[in-house]
Design goal:
alpha/beta; 4 strands; about 25% helix
């Protein structure tokens, strides 16, 4: 999980049976986007981020394990955002995420598959 994602989401994902490592847990605080993306790919992990730069479709035109882009209003509480993310994750096709950008927003998800 990227640095712009609440650290509190990582243990919730683990409790639901998902492997999850936040960049702070990986001692990568302040790492460049390319390094965070590279770490996720080396780990064969889906990268969870709110960073539009990392999730830019042009930047993702390479083979990758998947990216989940979080698009939630800042005025929502962390608990509300985490609850909504967990609800959406339960319905997400996580086992089919290779070269996929999954955009999670309040009440909905959008799936974009890359040709890479």
């Amino acid at each position: 999980m990227d640095e712009d994602v609440q650290l509190s989401l990582s243990p919730l994902l683990r409790l639901s049976g998902h492997d999850s490592t936040h960049v702070l847990e990986a001692n990568m605080r302040g790492a460049a986007d390319e390094d965070v993306f590279g770490y996720a790919q080396a780990s064969k992990a889906i990268l969870v981020t709110a960073d539009l730069g990392i999730a830019d479709a042009r930047a993702l035109d390479v083979a990758h394990s998947g990216v989940i882009l979080l698009r939630f209003p800042e005025e929502l509480s962390t608990d509300s955002i985490n609850s909504e993310i967990m609800r959406l994750i339960d319905d997400a096709p996580l086992n089919e995420m290779a070269t996929t950008l999954l955009v999670l927003e309040p009440g909905r998800m959008r799936i974009r598959r890359s040709s890479a």
